[in-house]
Amino acid sequence: MARSFSARIGLGIAASAALALGALAGVSPPANADAAAYYLVSDASIEESDSGKTTMNFVVSRMGDINSVAGSVRFTTVNDDPGDEFSALSPGDFVARTNYKVKFAVGQSLAVVSVKVKGDILAEYDENFSVQLHDQVEGELIDPFGVGTIVNNDPGEPPVYTVSSGLGPEGDSGTSKMAFTITRNGSTTVAGSVRYFTEGLVGFATAGEDFVNKKPTKVSFPKGVTSKTVYVVIKGDEDFEDDEYFQIDLSDPVNGSIDPFDYQYGLIQNDD
């Protein structure tokens, strides 16, 4: 969503002056006022609070020929990639605005649209979400995309979930349990959770035959807790075979992210 340097500087100066004077509707149009009207939106940022809500303000501008007729444009917030730890998501991080109509009177060049940002005490990275202008009336879209940045104010490293590998003997009959440790590194000032699940590997351990397959299962981490142990049931037999592997994965982190290498292996050691 790149914006030219000159466009950003020009918009920033005009917006700052207008806000300081408290007279958004009275800002004079630029020198090329006879050009067709067009809309653009600024970027915005704000430091989050520990609780409640703060207000992030985006400046929507209508430039060019704005003295002939009134106009309007709609404003919508957009979640970025839910799997990206740098993405802010509604409703957890901010209150979405959808199809909000921004009206411009004849001669009005600036309007402010507010987005409510939710506070928390979770150590995290600065997070971004997108805003978009659309459905314009009496004007064109010249720069319809903006970025809102929520600046983290909480100390500590953002939490990251990882899982260990595991190993154990197969056994001749019955079942046994193989242990895995799920660890939450970084800040533990708030509770969190993550899910784990297993899957067989072609040519190695087969789910249902060599081990009991585990569907995604939630593991909760209370405040201050850094590790939890989970178990996978291994099935014994008397077959002569090689050591066998299966995979254990993590998914659906809450109040934290998953390590890029979010899987490990369980090694079933043949004892026949």
Automatic annotation (TrEMBL):
Q: Is Cell inner membrane a UniProt keyword of this protein?
A: no
- Mind telling me which Gene3D superfamilies this protein's record contains? 2.60.40.2030
* The keyword Signal is assigned to this record: yes
Q: Which Gene Ontology cellular component terms are annotated? A: membrane
Q: List the SMART domains.
A: Calx_beta
Signal peptide range: 1-33
Identify the SUPFAM superfamilies for this entry: CalX-like
According to the lineage, what is the superkingdom? Bacteria
Gene Ontology molecular function = G protein-coupled receptor activity
Q: Calx-beta domain: from which residue to which, for each copy?
A: 146-251
Name the keywords, alphabetized.
Calcium, Repeat, Signal
Protein name per the record: Calx-beta domain-containing protein
Classification lineage: Bacteria, Bacillati, Actinomycetota, Actinomycetes, Propionibacteriales
